[in-house]
Specification:
Layout lengths: L1 H11 L19 E7 L5 H11 L4 E3 H9 L4 H11 L6 H14 L6 E4 L5 H11 L4 E8 L2 H9 L1 E3 L6 E3 L26 H24 L3 E5 L8 H30 L1
Parallel strand pairs: 1-3, 1-4, 2-3, 4-7
Antiparallel strand pairs: 5-6
Helix pairs in contact: 3-4, 3-5, 5-6, 6-8, 7-8
The site of zinc ion (ZN) has 8 residues, from loops.
Length: 264
């Protein structure tokens, strides 16, 4: 009976009524952690920077964590220095330790963006399990179809002398082998060689798919198909989609949280 009354109040929008439902406390809203992924070639790091700037959301990235702990006198700081001095990559556990420690010590309890973490399914599971009591997580995947990435990347050639960038299909030079501006021989970067682009895409899908499947199951995953946006205004259009996705998720999940509290 109690549940039915609450649901009726929610549906009719009458949160505050004499002797009826109480407006749930505003402290119900948990801060949001936004995790951005992008198909290799879309520049997810750049999106993280721009969204952080546009929405005034702090950005916590792997490199900013390493910078913060390199000079810190603490067991985590010592481990980071040791890894750095041996030129090793940051082990998964150390990355998580840094992330948790940093998040717990933040004075500002605002929403924030996490860039470069998680790298594995195990890290995604840990984040969800350990942080969900205090935070909500939203994973956003900026997706561009592999065929489009291969077409864009593998068609790129640059002039090593003046730096001008051409595309064999979209902005070809007059002579396919030489620069229009300075007559130097054009070059294709190693990263843009078709086989290397395909390899990088395959690696990414192998690593990211289990993470996405996990967040899908947790109902905190959104995919933005950005293939149609590829072109000059790509960044602006995708940025607008990311902002809309964050705002929509925030409204929906805050509603869900309120409902949980009211039914408990
Ligand atoms: Zn040139």
């Amino acid at each position: 009976m109690k549940k039915i009354l609450f649901l009726f109040c929610l549906a009719s929008g009458c949160f505050v009524q004499q002797g009826g439902c109480q407006d749930p406390p505003t402290s119900v809203r948990k801060p949001l952690i936004i995790i951005l992924f992008g198909t290799p070639g879309t520049g997810p790091g750049d999106f993280a920077l721009r969204i952080s700037d546009e929405m005034s959301l702090p950005l916590i990235s792997t490199s900013s964590l390493v910078q913060a702990y390199l000079t810190q006198e603490s067991p985590i700081g010592a481990s980071v220095r040791e890894t750095f001095n041996t030129h090793g990559s940051i082990p998964d556990k150390l990355l998580l330790d840094m992330t948790y420690d940093y998040i717990q010590k933040r004075e500002n309890r605002s929403d924030f963006i996490l860039d470069g973490i998680p790298r594995t399914l195990a890290q995604a599971q840990s984040l969800q399990k350990d942080l969900s009591p205090q935070f909500r997580i939203l994973c956003i995947y900026i997706q561009v179809k592999d065929a489009a990435i291969i077409q864009i990347k593998s068609g790129r050639v640059i002039c090593p002398n003046c730096g001008r960038v051409y595309h064999k299909e979209f902005s070809p030079p007059d002579d396919p082998l030489t620069c229009d501006q300075c007559d130097s021989a054009l070059k294709q970067l190693e990263d843009d060689v078709r086989e290397n682009v395909v390899l990088r895409l395959n690696d990414f899908h192998k690593r990211a798919t289990p993470i996405f499947d996990f967040f899908k199951k947790e109902k905190c995953f959104a995919e933005i198909d950005s293939t149609a946006y590829v072109g000059e205004e790509f960044r602006d259009l995708v940025n607008a989609e990311i902002r809309r996705t964050i705002e929509r998720f925030d409204i929906d999940s805050t509603r869900a949280l309120k409902l949980e509290v009211m039914l408990s």
